[in-house]
Amino acid sequence: AAAGLSYVGGYVINTYKSYDNFLQDKYALLPAVIIICVAVVMFIIGLIGCCATFRESRVGLGLFLAIILVIFIAEVSAFVLGFIYREKVKTDVQGTMRSVFEKYDGKNPESTVVDYLQEQLHCCGVKNYSDWTTTQWFNSTGNNSVPLSCCRQDMKNCTGRLDQPQEL
């Protein structure tokens, strides 16, 4: 279990590097760090439990049970906090994404991240392709289209034009 949690925490941190322009708040990594810390603690607790069982120590097994109960309470607390604050996180991420989309010019590093995000997640805009109509890039190009990263991957001749939304 500790190895699985370590993998999940490491995967989240590694994935964060691709989307760090959208998540300006560094506390977004806090759950991943907590998962890794829990994995380390679980490994140590597992060793205590194994040693206590091997030595048939009542004190060691009692300590093992108490630690497991504390971890269970911490997990339930983390779940409840995540459930309570999910809308705030969603609003914060959407606001940050809108500001990054507003800086899009097709050349800067933020533009590269936006293109990567849209291609990887098979999406266009924050909610849909109409989000692009309010951006500075859309108004400056004047060609009534969205970036080519919005195009569906199976569409070879997609131009990003808004009069062909089936291609986006």
Automatic annotation (TrEMBL):
Keywords: Membrane, Transmembrane, Transmembrane helix. It holds the Pfam family Tetraspanin. It is a multi-pass membrane protein. GO terms for cellular component: plasma membrane. The chain crosses the membrane at residues 28-54, 61-85. It is found in: Membrane. It comes from the Eukaryota. The keyword Membrane applies. Its main location: membrane. InterPro entries: Tetraspanin/Peripherin, Tetraspanin_EC2_sf. The keyword Cytoplasm does not apply. This is TSN36 protein. It comes from Alca torda (Razorbill). The gene is Tspan36.
